[in-house]
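Researcher: Please translate sequence to structure tokens.
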Amino acid sequence: MKAPFQKRTLAMAMVLVPLLVLFVYVAVRSGPLAPVPVVLTTVKSASISPSLFGIGTIEARYTYKIGPTFAGRVLSLAVDVGDRVKAGQTLGEMDPVDLDERIRAQSAALKRSQAQLVEAQSRTTFARSQDRRYEELGKANSVSEEVVSTKRQELKIAEAGLTASEEELARLKAEGDALTAQRENLHLKAPVDGLVVVRNAEPGTTVVAGQAVVEVIDPTSLWVNVRFDQIHAQGLAADLPAKIELRSQGGEIQSGHVFRVEPLADAVTEETLGKVVFEKALENLPPLGELAQVTVLLPPLPEGPVVPNAAIQRRNGDVGVWKVSGDELEFVPVRVGVTDLEGRAQVREGVSVGDRVVHYSTKALHDSSSISVVDRLPGVKK
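Model: Translation complete:
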């Protein structure tokens, strides 16, 4: 009985031992105990050019809201949204109602006043000559003093009438000029060469004083109203170069610069506001309000330790890198500074130039991980 049992035991051992060896081999080579393939990089000393990223909207720096200075009804409009206009071009007209008749009446009153002024001038000239004549006769005792006083009084009355006529004529001229200016103001004219972006009323619509009938923008004054996270806005200043990517232009990059940083920030969203202008006027104007991505290039920083962004990991709330010394793997907390567009990060504390750190790994590392250094990760093409 023992021989068959021993044979079965030996047979099972011959099957199980290879399986166990295979299991151990798989566990060590590709299982949880297998070394983790990693790509290493060396901490280098370099100067990086940080950047700020923000989202903004296209706006016009100069917007002209054109409308009447007093309440009235829109008589006609000669332009529509999207039309290009020239400075001084008539865009529309308000209904004058009885203004033309008032101007004609004022013109007639002005002519009558001018005639009265001529008459007053004649009376004054005659009274002045009579006053001189009777003054001489009085000196020769040819007329009484009472007659001389009467002629002197007539001259004063004539001069007072002349002054009143001159003042009345000046008043009527001023009123006439005011009515003419008011009539001219009924013509809604473009103050600059621009583009019509809003048409708020149609002919026949009654509008109040100051209400915009048409809005015109200066297309050469477009800028981007950008919002930057206050945490990363250090160093943001006027005149810094910027790159603007408009959503409607298929990723095409436009050059620009920071025109100004607004002195008032948004306390609700905790963002700093800035105005970024284009270096040259755009041929294809984007619609106002379109979103744009803006990258502001900050001045280069002094040289210091730099690592790729991919090498920075977060472990148990700490930010650090996996440092490799010989065959030992150690997680080293670091203090990270600014980053640049090339995917590099400045390290202020934690590592030194020349240290080797893990750049990429096939899976998350831990203190007891064994690693296998490779030139590139499996399945990743150069």
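Researcher: Any highlights?
Model: Residues 201 and 213 are 5 Å apart (CA to CA).
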